[in-house]
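Q: Hi! First time asking for a complex rather than a single chain. Here are the components, and I think there are three in total. Is that enough to go on?
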Amino acid sequence: MGKTNPRKFWLFKTEPTSFSIDDLARAPKQTTCWDGVRNYQARNLLRDTVQVGDGVLIYHSSTDPLAIVGTAQVVKAGYPDHTAFDKNDHHYDPKSDPAVPTWYMVDIRLTQIFPQPLPREELQEVTALSSMVLLKRGSRLSIQPMTPAEWQAIHKLAGDREK
DNA sequence: GCCAACGTTGGC
DNA sequence: GCCAACGTTGGC
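A: Yes, that's all I need. Here is the structure of the assembled complex.
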């Protein structure tokens, strides 16, 4: 009773051409809503599991170099993604009813931009990361769970690169 | 409820 | 640009 859930860790994918970690850094309070997720598995995580205080790695996909570029923190837990209701929004979904929203989002605040991004190529060499969802073949999930061990290993790599 | 067709993601 | 891996759609 009264036992708080342990802090969890996530990896959020984004295409830097549409939203990059530099955009996050320039946002008011370096905070943004993570809108536009249109996949049910990712939606379930955003709605039900991602909590305030959870750690988030930011990953740049479909770019060169592919890399983990920094970290953020969840500052608001799952709430309806209003961009689904906006006809003019690229992520508009007419099937999402405001009374029973289909899609959810969270807010995150930038923690740090890594001085050196961690390229996917290098992550693939690290034994401790061999089970990362990100590195699995055909992995398309845009909101990915990761283990505390993976979280720590990433931070160690980022720290080592800084030296 | 099955499953073929189609669309999308995203590394390579 | 290619294409494997998924997810979604829709006829039956």
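A: Residues 9-158 of chain A form a domain with the ph1033 like fold fold (CATH 3.10.590.10). Let me know if you'd like any chain examined more closely.
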